[in-house]
Amino acid sequence: MSHRLKVFLVAVAGLMLLSACTGPKAEEKRAEGAAPVTTQPAGPLRVAVISHGTAGDAFWNVVKNGAEEAGRQLGVQVEYNSDGDPGNQAKLVDNAVAQRVGGLVVSMANPEALKTSVENAVRAGIPVITINSGEDKSAAYGALTHVGQNESIAGEEAGKKFRELGKKKLLCVIHEAGNIGQAQRCDGAKTGFAGDVQTLQVDISNPADAESRIRGAVQTDSSLDAVLTLNSQVAARAVSAIKAVGSRAQVGTFDLNTDVVGAIKSGDVVFAVDQQQYEQGYLPVQFLKLYRDNANVVGGGKPVLTGPDLVDKSTVDTVGQYVQRGTR
To answer: Which PROSITE patterns match (predicted)?
Structure first.
């Protein structure tokens, strides 16, 4: 055998050995314990935004506006869907995973109901960002980050505001049973208020009954001098209920809409805790685009906070113009 042939055979053997080391089994070894790799389809990024909002909820309309505007600006295809029932919301997430969307944005008012669906999305290689509710479970379920307001801090700020106003007894109105974020708001309000705080459960899908229950509470207990609602639509019902019975209680609320802006200007509502939900729609779409195009992750393992920002008579004129156009 010639020297040249020997060199050739040695080279071929080396290449075969290298191929064996870097073949499928070696790739499997490297992948053990690693995060799933997303294989994104060609073309524009497609993002599914799935919230627990109910139909006609002004708050979630603003979230939707933010997500869709980000999509227009960044060339991202945004598909918004919502369902207030946790089981149905989980099915929407499952459908998005089955359709192989390029990114998922999901609110988790009931984290346990969404756990399997969100984890399945992550296992499928779909990057997930949680918004609004479920901050405590976001990282555990595999989300890249959480965008929203820390509900305990926001509730504490609302309680402090009432305390500064000299109030002595506070009623915190919960409008969605099982919503962990609302419980955190009321618990935070108890801490900030440092006084007598009671809670009342109403159903946002039955506004007339919600108003009746609030009316009954302030009529039965005349010492209630503060009412904290956790939704702008419930705030309007609280104002009507208080006026109907001649109560001296004042209303503070979470979230803004045009009615709340008008009520702050008239003095019927003393403040609103604004979590700037437009950002909760806009920022995740931007973050997912950055993640796909440049592997950027925002937050450094911590949530990206969009609130709280307290709006009262001193700031309502400035903020109100943006509420009118659907961005606050």
So the answer is: PROKAR_LIPOPROTEIN
